[in-house]
Structure formats: structure tokens, C-alpha cells
From TrEMBL:
GO terms for cellular component: cytosol. Keywords: Amino-acid biosynthesis, Arginine biosynthesis, Cytoplasm, Lyase. Pathway: Amino-acid biosynthesis; L-arginine biosynthesis; L-arginine from L-ornithine and carbamoyl phosphate: step 3/3. Residues 7-301 form the Fumarate lyase N-terminal domain. The keyword Secreted does not apply. The lineage of its organism: Bacteria, Bacillati, Bacillota, Bacilli, Bacillales. HAMAP family: Arg_succ_lyase (MF_00006). This is Argininosuccinate lyase. It comes from Bacillus weihaiensis. Belongs to the lyase 1 family. Argininosuccinate lyase subfamily.
Length: 457
């Protein structure tokens, strides 16, 4: 089949070469963006007198018909036309005749594809920001229900000090808040128009870049045509921001997976977000959390891939850049899917308050309380640490916890111990008293939730 760029060629490529070079099987995802970009471009061509008003109107009509068909899934594309841009041009010419060939005046696929991707990411980054906010809101609701639910806090995955479950959830709220800010901050770079950079050097036609930028609701335009067509930083930024978000989700997934194990039993996932085993009838597996943890890998992969694609590229456009799209689409799909699933999974998650609290009673996560107690009474903290460490060891050897240790033993260890020691080591009290800013004390957590609520609005 004769190519739209076939004039310079004596042979048409073989089908398998066509297939290798084509991007239509994935860049058809950009069909609406491509048509939207073309609509702005043709209006500008008419306005600037580069083509006649009648021609511009005819092309506009044709593009609108194609847009309608695209929305109804009625367009069919062909590998012979390589990518979405040439496919659309071909369909347009089929629709309105040879005048359709005037659409490509004063532009190139190079600025066209870059424009499409800016439009595409602009839309999806906004969706992702909304989804992040949705997950933050879900975490806030859960946190509000569980201010006074206590569980062991861990360091090194060893029980460290008791904390409020709400405090734990709110840690993720703030991670997501940074993610949201990063995406918001990137919007100003996504929202720039490369259109009119043409192939690489601008064009001799008297185009109006500001007009198309404005029509497409961009906030500004690329200052340099070479940069305009070859910049993919905005996609790398998107992949990088997504990698961070996925990493945060993955950490929470890891905790969810641990928490719903037999060993912890801190939570139970709703049936919707779990699956059974084909052989072991008792199983309820946290598949969705595992899958999101796993999908983090492909998002990192997409980031590495694009960074590597770009590192050796001379200016301006190179066909290597066609490799930028699949990772971007895949990341958008992964991010939107993971965030949606996460919202549902968190909303429906059942918290086993008793198990969590029980865990704080059957460990030594109240040992810091004892050391603090002695140091408040004047003993240097280092000595207090030693005294309590010895008491913990004594308990471990007799198979009891600090709460079970007879008062004489405390007295023997230090004369500073009084009868109130048992209240001090009560984990609930231990949490309540951690009133320092950003700490887990119940009242501090309540204030933190209020602050977060204002922040979210
Ligand atoms: N399909 C191409 C891509 O995705 C569009 C730009 C092609 N430009 C070119 N001069 N071959 O990058």
C-alpha cells in the first residue's frame, strides 16, 4: 500500500517491517487527544489564512465526524498507516476527500504526538489526583473510627511501643499528601503546548502558536521548538511520581498482608478483596494487596525504561521516542486501578480491635514507659534503661510480662518504683501520654485528624 510519506520511496516496506515499526496497536489510545489537537490546529490554519475558511470548515466537520465515531468505537485502524496520526489523516481524506491532506500544513507528527501526550497526561494526572484524595478521605474516616484502638508500633518488625491505629493510618495519609502535591506541582509542566514546533525547527507558515495553545487550554508553550518535540521529561516526572506513590501503596499492602495473617489477625479484608485457594479450602488470600505490591515493580520498570531510552538521544525527534507510550499507558492504568481498589479495600476492611489491643498486653512494648518513669524520678535515662532491661530479662526467663511482675521485684530493682508503676505500664496510658507534637497521644491524633480534614478540602 502506498504510504502517506511514500513520494521519496521506490519500494513499499514489507508487511512484517511495517508491523515492527507501527505504533497503532497502542497509540490508538490517543485517538481523542489527536483529534482534539487537530481541531485546534485547523482552526488556526483557517484563522491565519494558511488555508481558506471553507477548507478549514470542511476539515473541521470531517474531524468532528471522526471524533463522534471514535467515541462510538466505530473507527478502524490499519497497521499500514503506522500510527494514530497517519491513520486519522487517512480516515479524514476518506471522509472529506483530498482537502483533508491540507490538515498537516505547518505541523509534523513530531509536535503532534508530543501534544497528544501532554493532553493525555493532563487528563489522567487530574484523575489520579482525585483518586489520591479519595484514598486520603478513606484513611481519614478509618482513622476517626480508631483513635483509641491501640496496637503495637514496630521498629525492625519487633514490637517497639504501643500506638494508636489512627496514628498509623495517618502516616499514610501524609505520604499520600506528598504524592498529591508532587502530581499537582507537575501539572504546570504537563500543561505546556509543543504544538507549532513542527518537525524540529518551527515553520515558515505564519502560524499562531498562542492561539492553538489557548484553544487546547494549555497554560503556556514550549519556548524552543527542538525542546518542544523531543522533551519527555514530563512523562519521566509522571513515572517517577507514580513510582513513589506505588511504593507507598506497596508498603501499606505489605502491612495489610501481615495484619490479616493468622499470626497477627489484626484485620480482616472484605471477601471482595480476597480470593480462595484452588486446593486449600480454608484459605482467604489478600490477593489485591499482593497484586498492588507486585505491580509496583512494573511502574519502576517503566520509569527505568524511559530514562534509559532518553539518555543517549541527540536532538530532536528520534523514533526511539515511540517507546515512550506503552509504559505511560501502563502506568496510568496501574495507578488508576490500584488506587481504586485501595479505596474499596480500605473502606471495607474490618479492624480486630481486641486482637490489636491484646497484642500490646502480651509484649514488652511498655518497657520504655518504665524507663521514662524512673528517669522522671531523677534517675539518669541510661541507668533507667539498664534497670528496666534487667527486669525485662527477668520476666522473659520466668515466662511473664512486666504487668505480672510482683511489686517486691520492682522495689528490689529500684527504690524509686511506687505502686503506681502498674498504671504507668498500661499500654492505653502509654499511648495517651505521648502528647508531643506529631505523636500518638489520643488528643494529638484527634487534632491531627482535624488538621488533615481541613487540608483535604
Ligand atoms: N508514532 C510516532 C511516535 O510515537 C509518531 C511520531 C513519528 N514521527 C516520525 N517522524 N516518524 O513517536
Amino acid at each position: 500500500m502506498k504510504k502517506l510519506w511514500g513520494g521519496r520511496f521506490q519500494k513499499t516496506p514489507e508487511q512484517w517491517v511495517d508491523e515492527f515499526g507501527a505504533s497503532i496497536h497502542f497509540d490508538q489510545e490517543l485517538v481523542e487527544e489527536d483529534l482534539t489537537g487537530s481541531l485546534a490546529h485547523v482552526e488556526m490554519l483557517g484563522k491565519c489564512g494558511i488555508i481558506s475558511q471553507e477548507e478549514a470548515e470542511l476539515i473541521t466537520k470531517g474531524l468532528k465526524t471522526l471524533l463522534q465515531k471514535a467515541q462510538n468505537n466505530e473507527l478502524s485502524f490499519s497497521v499500514a498507516y503506522e500510527d494514530i496520526h497517519l491513520n486519522i489523516e487517512k480516515l479524514l481524506i476518506d471522509e472529506i476527500g483530498p482537502v483533508g491532506g491540507k490538515l498537516h500544513t505547518g505541523r509534523s507528527r513530531n509536535d503532534q504526538v508530543a501534544t497528544d501526550m501532554h493532553l493525555y497526561l493532563r487528563k489522567h494526572v487530574q484523575t489520579i489526583i482525585e483518586l489520591i484524595k479519595g484514598l486520603q478521605a478513606t484513611l481519614l474516616t478509618k482513622a476517626e473510627e480508631h483513635v483509641e484502638t491501640i496496637l503495637p508500633g514496630y521498629t525492625h518488625l519487633q514490637r517497639a511501643q504501643p500506638i494508636s491505629f489512627a496514628h498509623h493510618l495517618m502516616a499514610y495519609y501524609w505520604m499520600l499528601d506528598r504524592d498529591k502535591q508532587r502530581f499537582q506541582e507537575s501539572q504546570k509542566r504537563i500543561n505546556l503546548s509543543p504544538l507549532g514546533s513542527a518537525a524540529l525547527a518551527g515553520t515558515t507558515f505564519p502560524i499562531d502558536r498562542a492561539f492553538t495553545a489557548d484553544k487546547l487550554q494549555f497554560e503556556g508553550m514550549y519556548e524552543n521548538s527542538l525542546d518542544g518535540v523531543s522533551d519527555r521529561d514530563f512523562i519521566i516526572e509522571f513515572l517517577s511520581n507514580s513510582s513513589l506513590t506505588m511504593m507507598h501503596l506497596s508498603r501499606l499492602c505489605e502491612e495489610i498482608i501481615l495484619w490479616c495473617s493468622q499470626e497477627f489477625q489484626f484485620i480482616e479484608l472484605d471477601d471482595t478483596y480476597a480470593t480462595g485457594s484452588s486446593i486449600m479450602p480454608q484459605k482467604k488470600n489478600p490477593d489485591m494487596a499482593e497484586l498492588i505490591r507486585g505491580k509496583t515493580g512494573r511502574v519502576y520498570g517503566n520509569l527505568m525504561s524511559l530514562l534509559t531510552i532518553l539518555k543517549g538521544l541527540p536532538l530532536a525527534y528520534n523514533k526511539d521516542l515511540q517507546e515512550d507510550k506503552e509504559g505511560m499507558f501502563d502506568t496510568v492504568k496501574t495507578m488508576e486501578g490500584s488506587l481504586q481498589i485501595f479505596i474499596g479495600m480500605m473502606e471495607t476492611l474490618k479492624v480486630n480491635k481486641e486482637k490489636m489491643e491484646q497484642a500490646t498486653k502480651e509484649d514488652f512494648s511498655n518497657a520504655t514507659e518504665l524507663a521514662d518513669y524512673l528517669s522522671t524520678k531523677g534517675m539518669p535515662f541510661r541507668d533507667a534503661h539498664e534497670v528496666v532491661g534487667t527486669l525485662v530479662y527477668q520476666c522473659i526467663t520466668s515466662g511473664i510480662y512486666l504487668k505480672d511482675l510482683p511489686f517486691e521485684e520492682y522495689k528490689k530493682a529500684s527504690h524509686l518504683f511506687e505502686e503506681d508503676v502498674y498504671e504507668v505500664i498500661n499500654p492505653y496510658e502509654a499511648v495517651r501520654k505521648r502528647m508531643s507534637a506529631g505523636g500518638t497521644g489520643f488528643d494529638v491524633v484527634r487534632q491531627a485528624i482535624e488538621k488533615a480534614k481541613e487540608n483535604l478540602n
